[in-house]
Amino acid sequence: MSKRDYYEVLGVQNNADDQQIKSAYRKLALQYHPDRNPGDSQAEERFKEAAEAYAVLADSDKRARYNQFGHAGVEGVSGVQGFDPTIFSDFGDILGGLGDLFGFSGGQRPGGPAQGADLRYDLEIEFSDAASGTEMVLQVPRLEVCEGCKGTGSEQGTPETCPQCQGHGQVRYQQGFLTVARTCGQCRGRGQVIRNPCSRCGGQGRVEKDRKLTVKIPAGISTGQRLRLQNEGEHGSSGGPSGDLYVVIHVGEHPFFHRDDDDLWCEVPVTYPTLVLGGDISVPTLNGDATLTIPKRTKAASRFRLRGKGMPHVSGHGQGDLYVSIKVEVPTELSREQQELIEKLDKTMPDRSSGPSSRSKKNERPFFNRVRDMFG
Predict the structure, then answer these.
(1) What long-range pairs does 86-90 form, CB within 8 A, spacing at least 24?
(2) Beta strand pairing status for 206-217 and 322-329?
């Protein structure tokens, strides 16, 4: 029986590019795969035929010989006569795990060395610690290699080679024209069997322990930032490398400062005479008090900027700024003399007539009421 034209098998033109050829074969591989058509010999033949066509047309040299000499030009070439399973390496992502089923994934052998899991630790720190930086000791639970069996899982000596798979972790058998590889059911892919499990870890090779670690908190760190401690996650299994530990920072609120990135904001009360006449006031900062000069006739809710008085940049270079908002400080208790002085001032303010008796209820606005209006 003569073979069909390879372009006809894949359903493409003879000038099709590599991507068109790959897409055509991908579609046919999914449609006629033996695992999706159990017991269907016709589907098995179509699958084998498509695989053979793809093995030729996906290779530039083989394709050139086929275009010039036809089937005679590629007879006897490796991967053409009979089925070449290596072509599945390009399609492990679309065969729904069928590439692993047939042993063509090229990945890690089941039960072989595996990297330990990464761990997360949420750490709450004070605002002052975030501003200055600090060191903290953490106690992290994690899986570590069992000291009793050194990670082998066996109580005495080393595990035995699995008699069913001969240490390969997989067993192979014939399914139609394919050689199928499946994870060994006796050793579950490890290639070894444990006759006498370790009493400390129960044959798992790892045990849970609390690990104490010192972590350095850099100045300027903020909520949500992470610190990575390499190889401080869980230990790997079967000799695999350890994972990493990620410390996620949560910074507490400050009773006076409000943080915006590396800038700080605060609100400072100032007396009305200082706003009118001007003067110096003390403003709290992260590193002690700073002097702020209030100009004459400053309005309430004015904002001042103190450069370099904010949070340190976590990079270690420079600091943010401190923004100070002014609010009017209204006294709650007045002496008789203060009361009289304020009343005299009130009479000199705008929108006043010559005497108290001529004031209308509409215009009667005591001084502190107007101050409150100024403040909002």
Answers:
(1) 87/51, 87/54, 87/55, 87/58, 90/22
(2) unpaired
Q: Which of 259, 260, 256, 263 is nearest to 320 (CA)?
A: 263
Whether the predicted pLDDT of 310 surpasses 60: yes
Please report the pLDDT score of residue 106 as a whole number. 42
Locate 177 and state its tokens.
Answer: 């024209």
Type of residue at 366: P
Backbone angles phi, psi at 299, to 5 degrees: -80, 150
- pTM of this structure: 0.58
Domain boundary among 101, 124, 145: 101
Q: How confident is the model at residue 226 (pLDDT cuts 50, 70, 90)?
A: very high
Same domain, 96 and 57: yes
Helix (H, G, I), strand (E, B) or coil at 78: coil
Tokens representing residue 249 in the block? 């920072």
Query: Amino acid identity of 146?
Result: C
| Backbone φ, ψ for residue 209 (5° rounding) | -135, 160
Pair 120, 216 in one domain: yes
> CA-CA distances (angstroms) from residue 103 to 88, 92, 181?
10, 10, 5
User: Does 359 fall in a domain?
Assistant: yes
Q: What does the pLDDT look like over 234-248, one tens digit per residue? A: 998 878 899 999 999
**Residue 304's domain spans which residues?**
258-329
Q: Are residues 288 and 226 in the same domain?
A: no
Bridge partners, residue 193, by sequence = 160
334, 342 contact by CB (below 8 A): yes
List the structure tokens of 240. 């695999």
Q: Are 84 and 51 in contact (CB under 8 A)?
A: yes
Q: For residue range 11-28, what is the model confidence (pLDDT) as tens digits?
A: 999 999 999 999 999 889
Alpha-carbon distances, residue 315 vs 100, 151, 252 (angstroms): 46, 40, 21
Q: Would you give the distance in Å from CA 172 to the centre of its chain?
A: 39
Total domains in the chain come to 4
What does the DSSP assignment read for 273-312?
HHHHH-EEEEEEETTEEEEEEEPTTPPTT-EEEETT-SPB
> Are 239 and 267 in a shared domain?
no
- Rounded to whole angstroms, the Cα distance separating 87 from 22 reads 11
